[in-house]
Amino acid sequence: MKVSAQTTDPLAPPAGWTWPLPDGPECARHARAVLEEALAALGVPAEARADARLMVSELATNAHQHAAGSRPHELWLCRDAASGTVYCAVFDRDASARLPGYSWTSGDCGRGLAIVRELSGGRWGTGAAVARIGEPEPGKAVWFAIT
């Protein structure tokens, strides 16, 4: 089974907040901690925050493992004032829209995007984007919505 994502303009700057993500295996842990604090401050319910932490962990891990030589990564967050929907994205400087593969039989790897798809109710995607920290380098952002 192949996972596909919606392709869209993920989050047009300058809306929302941006944080740098460290290079290395601590990338996902840092993304989870920052997102938890921000979502709690926005009043997002605990169950939605737990799902969001898992989704951002998967996206940050993918950026660290698959966006070869394209560091640093960024965490983006914004809230749509009209709907209350919160959008979260992980940006990397690998401009290819290629996403990691997916397989039910690949052991411990390859299930992250399926987890994001399920927990977001299909409200996720990827798109070309530009870095918000430092030089405006091209890359891609993989995002999901939290309601």
From TrEMBL:
Alphabetical keyword list: Kinase, Serine/threonine-protein kinase, Transferase
One family name in Pfam for this protein: HATPase_c_2
GO MF annotation terms: protein serine/threonine kinase activity
Stored SUPFAM superfamilies: ATPase domain of HSP90 chaperone/DNA topoisomerase II/histidine kinase
Domain Histidine kinase/HSP90-like ATPase: 24-119
Protein name, entry field: Histidine kinase/HSP90-like ATPase domain-containing protein
Annotated organism of origin: Actinomadura rubteroloni
